[in-house]
Amino acid sequence: MSDEDDEALIELVSRFDPEAMRRLYRRFARSVYGIAMKILRDSSAAEDAAQDAFLRIWKGSGSFRSEKGSAAAWIGRVARNTAIDHLRRRRSVSAERSWRESPVESAVSESSDPENEAEFSLRLEALRSALLELPRAQAQALNLAFYEGMTHRQIAEALGIPLGTAKTRIRDAMLALRSRLRKEGEA
Amino acid sequence: MLDHEEARALLPAYSLGCVDPDELEDLRAHIESCELCRLELAELLDLSGEIALTLPPLAPPARLEGRVLASLRRAAAAARSAGGAVPPRRRKAVPYLLGAVAAALIVILGAGDLILLARLRRVESASGGGLVTLVLRGTELAPSAFGTLVLDPDDVEGVLAVRDLPRLEQGQSYALWLVKAGMRESAGTFSVDAQGYGSLVLDVPKALRDFDAFVVVRVRADGGAGSGRPLMEGRR
């Protein structure tokens, strides 16, 4: 167990400190796998995507810039983008999707710096609330982009709305979320 | 070709990867040339990562840890044998506060000068007095050009944003020169879009307080000197 912050851990990972890799995995595996499961909805595919995501995290660790954002958010983004890439690859092979839930295990994550973690948890809680408060039309468009990996045009077709409307809904949703987080940061 | 505002409007979608292919090339070209869009994009990318983290965590199968660590060991061994022991590191980013101020310039540049000055004073005040904002005005070679330079005098970094500079010809770029007692030092080069909008993150070896004046000149993109006649000037 270590109480180093996420950014320090990423720094160690970039030098391929094997113990740091293990700590990184234990700290973020549940988040990375949870994201992959939400997007891929298949435990085997989610495992592949999680493995790929950790590989990308290692490859990107040397260029991670903590001045521009938190390590946790960066890892979340890598996990999401990797899962979306796997989803798109799978779609190109077959349009069919299996739906198997993975058993939820009660594994314990290694914690990071408790103070930062508490602050980050509050931020994520504010973001969860903001997501729930988005107008339905915006949330629908955002979900198609975020979890289904659809482009503006695909979203417009799926929802039967003009392309410009799809663009506006995505933009407004993201800016509303950003605005909420900025207020949270100022509070 | 997308102008700055059009590109900026697409940044939220770009952070989600949902921009259609027919717009991607133009958007990426703008982002590549616009430090302010890159700063705003960084914030949006962070947001997209945080959205992912709002999902409930889920414990993976126990076997996954062994798989992941084994694949990382293999990748690291391959990288070492190829001569690259660790992933490359990039240069230091713009400090957060400077980045936040620079992002504010996006709005400022679209406003008139009176509004500009009022907003700049508020920005300076919000920075706790640590940052200095300078106005660069166009010379007779570019009378409508206008720009702002935000810098930390004790540091070696700053951000420049300009508008209404003339379009460049093939093989040319703009350079920001830092001047003191007749000596000059380049702080980097930049290009402008169809509206004459451009930006630059300064990267200089000395503290910015060591310089008295800041000028924008046209130079050859290959690094060769141009006429050296300033198109914009500003003084501390």
Task: Report what the structure shows.
The complex is a heterodimer of chains A (187) and B (236). With 187 residues, chain A is an all-alpha fold. Helix content of chain A is 74%, strand content 0%. Chain A has eight helices and no strands. In chain A, helix 2 (18-40) packs across helix 3 and helix 2 (18-40) packs across helix 4. The relative contact order of chain A is 0.11. Chain B is elongated, with a radius of gyration of 21 Å. In chain B, a hairpin with a 2-residue loop joins strand 4 and strand 5. By secondary structure, chain B is of the alpha+beta class. Chain B has six helices and eight strands. The chains are: A mainly alpha (187), B alpha+beta (236). The interface between A and B is large, with 75 and 55 residues.
Write the layout of secondary structure elements.
The complex is a heterodimer of chains A (187) and B (236).
Chain A: H1 6-14, H2 18-40, H3 43-61, H4 71-93, H5 114-133, H6 136-148, H7 152-159, H8 163-186
Helix pairs in contact in A: 1-2, 1-3, 2-3, 2-4, 3-4, 5-8, 6-8, 7-8
Chain B: H1 4-16, H2 21-33, H3 35-53, H4 63-81, H5 96-108, H6 113-126, E1 132-138, E2 146-151, E3 157-163, E4 172-180, E5 183-190, E6 198-203, E7 213-220, E8 230-235
Antiparallel strand pairs in B: 1-2, 1-8, 2-3, 3-6, 4-5, 4-7, 7-8
Helix pairs in contact in B: 1-2, 1-3, 2-3, 3-5, 5-6
